[in-house]
Amino acid sequence: MTFLNEVINGKKPIEEAIFEAIVKAKTTCEENGNNSANCAVAWDIVEELQIEKAHQKQAKHRKTSLEDYCEIYPDALECLMYDI
Hints:
Elements: H1 2-8, H2 14-32, H3 37-59, H4 65-72
């Protein structure tokens, strides 16, 4: 889990950590066999990093000025939505 800790602490970009984890997983599986516990753990780490990357992408969604305005003034004409 050191890869994930380095990403969370800001020491390494997520893409770099994913690449390094994939290389390590391939090496681990070659050395220990594809059905070994170590191989499974190595690929679990890759999966966790990819999940973290997806979470970071979702967190980057920024509200538009209109969304901010409508949150403050939900009854404003610009913010009203009508069902037709």
